[in-house]
Design brief:
Organism: Rhizobium lusitanum
GO molecular function, one term: DNA binding
Distance between the termini: 55 Å
Largest sheet: 2 strands, antiparallel
Order of helices and strands: HHHHHEHHE
Structural class: mainly alpha
CATH superfamily: Tetracycline Repressor, domain 2
Strand content: under 5%
InterPro entries: Homeodomain-like_sf, HTH_TetR
Pfam family, one: TetR_N
Number of helices: 7
CATH class: Mainly Alpha
Number of strands: 2
Helix content: over 70%
Number of domains: 1
CATH architecture: Orthogonal Bundle
Keywords: DNA-binding
């Protein structure tokens, strides 16, 4: 994509685009950073909403992972250049993606701490919230990068299956 095409997509002039970004790479990086921030915020908002309604922890985790990771995957699935975009993101934006992952995982852990306090989740003594969150996020990222990636409409179900396998291998369902 050229800066001219990108400017048209943004509904601004090429000169206006160059006012904000000096290159396509810089514009792409900004887009990845913004998308990570949006999906982090939206996923935690949805998880918090479900937690406040008393939803079960598997539904909460599935919703969080689906918004955080699934929304981007579904958007990419629409593009014939999905592999190239994914490759480019990992090569150009890796430090920003690592930073976004660390921030998200800390926020996700805080939300799951609330689930523990409210009695929705009881971890085994040998498993920390931080470990559980790392396993869940690694699983979600692995689902996205797998050779047998789910179809866009099956992403949420795959996150749920993966989360159930991790969660009930290291936690017990809360007693009603």
């Amino acid at each position: 994509m050229t800066m001219i095409k990108l400017a048209k997509c943004c509904n601004i002039t090429r000169r206006g685009l160059y006012h904000h970004f000096s290159s396509k790479e810089e514009a792409f990086h900004a887009m990845v950073v913004q998308n990570n921030e949006n999906t982090r915020r939206d996923s935690l908002r949805e998880g918090g909403r479900l937690l406040s309604t008393g939803a079960n922890v598997l539904d909460i985790i599935t919703a969080i992972l689906d918004v955080r990771y699934g929304d981007t995957r579904r958007k990419l699935a629409l593009s014939p250049y999905a592999l190239e975009v994914n490759d480019y993101a990992f090569r150009l934006c890796r430090p920003a993606m690592i930073e976004a992952a660390a921030i998200f995982q800390a926020d996700f852990a805080a939300l799951l701490e609330r689930a523990v306090v409210s009695g929705l989740l009881m971890l085994l003594p040998s498993i920390s919230i931080k470990t559980l969150v790392q396993l869940l996020c690694d699983g979600a990222r692995g689902t996205n990068q797998s050779f047998f990636a789910p179809a866009p409409e099956e992403i949420a179900a795959r996150y749920r299956e993966m989360s159930r396998a991790i969660l009930y291998g290291c936690a017990e369902p809360a007693k009603p």
